[in-house]
Structures are given as structure tokens and as C-alpha cells.
Amino acid sequence: MKTLFSSWFVQGMVKATTDMWLKGWDERNGGNVSMRLLPEDVAPYKNDFYAQPRQVELTQHAPDLANEYFIVTGSGKFFRNVQLAPSEALTVIQLDDKGASYKILWGLTAGGLPTSELASHLQSHAVRKRVTNGQDRVIMHCHATNLIALTYVLELDSAKITRKLWECSTECLVVFPDGVGIVPWMVPGTDGIGAATSDRMQHHSLVLWAFHGIFGCGPTLDDAFGLIDTAEKSAEILVKVISMGGMKQTIQTEELIALGKRFDVTPFEAALKA
């Protein structure tokens, strides 16, 4: 008999959160992940749903996500422990038919609520669902060390930061040709930072929160993880280059244009001119 615990999406979240912790991106309860589930994903496991699920009002309504299911990390849950007790650290929720509240259908067995960044996740999900015609289903937030470090020394300009990351790892332009959006420091866990993030998500699959962390999105957990991993590797190289006195040579604009043509991607125009 199939159980929700053994479902591909629970096991996928276990692997993703464990990998993120091992990378050093998610200390303590830092970071959060959500994935939009299709009705056919959850249909085989409805017998595992709570008979009387808790219902919670959303501070920011999400009508574009009405009736949608999500698997989400819980607020205050340590990523290093997700693999030990998935049903305590994760939850499956469903929004109501107006996108005004959600029911906790499974998980959070020791109590609690979904991530405190749920507003940011849902607002970004709504945008990415629209701009990718439903393809993007994952929003991933973490505290990637080198990307955060760069926000203290580089100008907080989307084009300029994107250009530096492209220059420090050849694959970056191919993996995130749409560049990196920037959100200045804001109080986390608020509707305001969620709105600012979703605004950047209209144009960028990566959004960097100054002095805090990174948001990445994609069709799958692997896609979102790989996107952040690629940017963080380039950021690590850039941190080392800066510490060694800065660049003496780098990839040129015409070479970046040629790279985009070779892999049939359209580079973020402002970053080419930065």
C-alpha cells in the first residue's frame, strides 16, 4: 500500500533539504522550500490526509493559486533533521477556492505552521506559474554563503552582479541567462518582501536578498537546487578572485554573446552592457 511518506515528493524534499544543509546553506532553521503539487500527485495518498485538517487564514491572499496543493518546509524546522522526521518537518497544504486560506492536510506532527516565508513563496509561485505557463513548480530559499558575502562588497545592481557571476563561471550565462534580481534588505517573513521578490521573479529565476540569502525557482527540485548551486559556485570563485586582488582578465562581452548563441539562450541585455 502506498503511503504519503514514501511518495516521490516527500522523498524529494528530504533529499533536497539534506543536500542544502550539507552545502552549508541552511544553518539551524534557515531557509525554506515549497513545491506546487498537481492533483494527480496527491490523489493516491488522500487516505493519509488528516480527517479534520487545521485551516489557517493567509495574510496575503493568493487567488491565482486557488485550490492548489503544496508541500512546504515547516517554520522553525531544522533542515539537518528533515531526513530523520519528514512528517514533523514537512507539510502538505491546500489553498481554498478563493486562495484566502489553506488547510494543513499532512505533516507537522509535532505542531507548528508552514515556513514563515510562506507569503513570499506563494506570491512567487503565482508569478512563476504565469510567466512559465505552469512549468515552474519549485521555490527554494537558502543562505548561500558566498552570494550573501558579495552583497556586502558589490553594488546592489542586478546587471552588475549578474555580469560578475557570468564572468566567473562559463556555465552561468547558460544556466541563468535571465540574470539575478536584487531585493534590498527588508524584514523577512513579511508580505512586503514577498511582493518585492515576486516582482523580480517576473523577470529573473534567481532573486538575491541583500545580506540575507537567495531565492531560486524551477520546474523540479533538482532544477532549483542546480540553479542556486551554479550561482553559488561562481560567487565562491568571485570571492577568491576579489581576495587575490581582483580580475586581471575575464570573459569579454562578445564572448558572452557568442556563448548565448551557441546554447540558444537570450542573455539579460543590461548585464551585457554592464
Automatic annotation (TrEMBL):
| Pathway in which this enzyme or protein is active | Carbohydrate degradation; L-rhamnose degradation; glycerone phosphate from L-rhamnose: step 3/3
GO cellular component labels: cytosol
Annotated ranges, domain Class II aldolase/adducin N-terminal: 11-239
Q: Which UniProt keywords apply?
A: Cytoplasm, Lyase, Metal-binding, Rhamnose metabolism, Zinc
Q: Name one GO biological process term.
A: pentose catabolic process
Cofactor: binding comment: Binds 1 zinc ion per subunit.
* Active site: residue positions: E117
MF terms per GO, please?
Answer: metal ion binding; rhamnulose-1-phosphate aldolase activity
Query: Which InterPro entries does this one have?
Result: Aldolase_class_II_sugar_metab, Aldolase_II/adducin_N, Aldolase_II/adducin_N_sf, Rhamnulose-1-P_Aldolase
| Known EC number | 4.1.2.19
Catalysed transformations (reactions): L-rhamnulose 1-phosphate = (S)-lactaldehyde + dihydroxyacetone phosphate
The places in or outside the cell where this protein is found are: Cytoplasm
Q: Which cofactor does it need?
A: Zn(2+)
State the oligomer form and interacting partners.
Answer: Homotetramer.
Record family assignment:
Belongs to the aldolase class II family. RhaD subfamily.
NCBIfam families, alphabetically?
Answer: PRK03634.1, rhamnu_1P_ald
What this protein is reported to do is described as:
Catalyzes the reversible cleavage of L-rhamnulose-1-phosphate to dihydroxyacetone phosphate (DHAP) and L-lactaldehyde.
Q: What HAMAP family does the record point to?
A: RhaD
Query: What is the protein name given in its UniProt record?
Result: Rhamnulose-1-phosphate aldolase
Instruction: Tell me what organism the protein belongs to.
Output: Rahnella aquatilis (strain ATCC 33071 / DSM 4594 / JCM 1683 / NBRC 105701 / NCIMB 13365 / CIP 78.65)
